[in-house]
Specification:
The protein is globular. The protein has helices at residues 3-19, 24-31, 35-42, 50-59, 64-68. The chain has 5 helices and no strands. The protein has one domain: 434 Repressor (Amino-terminal Domain) (Orthogonal Bundle). The protein is an all-alpha fold.
């Protein structure tokens, strides 16, 4: 997948997290990851594992395909 995909995915995660009024710290705690790592994912700097993406989708109330659907 291209870097553009990860930039768009990160931006989507960021917007959805903010829409749920969850801080980066709280969200990362729920996902079981470091808040700095979450920031890197949201900025498209790091590629999250499938396991982490499933956790993120679950926290956001989405199915994994809904999270990965980038238009």
């Amino acid at each position: 997948m291209s870097n553009d995909f990860y930039l768009k995915l990160g931006k989507k995660i960021y917007k959805l997290r903010r829409a749920q009024k969850l801080s980066r710290e709280k969200f990362s705690e729920l996902a079981g990851i470091n808040d700095y790592y979450l920031g890197e994912i949201e900025r498209g700097e790091k590629k999250a594992s499938l396991d982490i993406l499933f956790k993120i989708a679950n926290i956001l109330g989405l199915k994994i395909h809904e999270l990965l659907n980038i238009d």
